[in-house]
Specification:
The protein is of the alpha/beta class. Helices cover 35% and strands 23% of the residues. The longest helix has 20 residues.
């Protein structure tokens, strides 16, 4: 069998002696949607930051396409074939929508910095091709009409699409989505779910999300973290029925007891 696209194996991370992650393992296959869920403070973002090279684990390893990532940095992700969206949208309001999308792929351009600064022909040709690709991506997401607008002038749901377009322009093999449905209406979440299902044929997807209905509707597998440990993993139906997951989200069920009459 082919190696998983992403492998996270026995990761442990501690901050000031406190374990943020404790022996966490998961994997994402090609064209698979895996969701990472858990209560606030469970360690979801820390795990994302380990995968991206922001945080170094004290124990364990991360591998991409079967190759262990020993000293990778966030600036290496684009060339490796990994794209990540951040919580919120993190768009530059001083740039137009299409320029924001183009910025996501600048790390992959062949022209060097001096060519770009001097406006040399090679740089100009690459910029033109990149703009065409960005416009095509915006068109495929139904927001090409906003290409020349400032992101700040757009509804939040459209800004989310711009952020995803920026990540997709890299043509990644692995897409990391950090709370993509936050702040969206029910109809916008439905549109986002459809978009994620459409792009899965080109990449594997690992996402962190709090909206449980959204997670259960799109995921092949769900991994549940609580206090830095994996407490459940499996299909959405399996995880939904797991009593430990219910306890993690809702707390221990208090049995009804008949109080003595006073």
């Amino acid at each position: 069998m082919a190696a998983p696209l992403l492998t996270v194996q026995e990761i442990t991370v501690s901050f000031a002696g406190l374990a943020a992650l404790d022996d966490v393992s998961l994997h994402v296959g090609e064209h698979e949607i895996v969701s990472l869920i858990g209560p606030n403070g469970a360690g979801k973002t820390t795990l994302f930051n380990v995968v991206c090279g922001f945080v170094r684990p004290s124990v364990g390893m991360v591998a991409f396409k079967g190759k262990e990532l020993r000293h990778h940095r966030p600036t290496d992700l684009a060339r490796m074939g990994i794209a990540r969206t951040l919580q919120g949208v993190k768009l530059w309001n001083g740039l137009s929508v299409v320029e924001n999308v183009m910025a996501g792929a600048h790390a992959t351009l062949r022209a060097d910095l001096f060519s770009a600064l001097l406006g040399l022909p090679r740089s100009s040709r690459e910029e033109d091709r990149l703009r065409e690709r960005a416009m095509s991506m915006l068109d495929s997401l139904g927001i090409a009409q906003a290409a020349n607008r400032s992101p700040a002038s757009l509804p939040y749901g459209v800004q989310k699409r711009v952020a995803i377009a920026r990540a997709l322009l890299l043509e990644p093999q692995l897409l990391l989505l950090d709370e993509p449905a936050s702040g969206l209406s029910a109809s916008e979440m439905g549109e986002l779910a459809q978009l994620i299902q459409e792009v899965r044929g080109r990449m594997g997807i690992l996402l962190v999300e709090h909206h449980m209905d959204f997670v259960m509707s799109i995921s092949d597998r769900v991994v549940v973290l609580n206090f830095g440990r994996v407490i459940a993993t499996g299909t959405p139906d399996t995880v939904r029925r797991d009593p430990e997951v219910t306890t993690a989200y809702l707390g221990e069920q208090v049995a009804d007891a008949e109080a003595p009459a006073s």
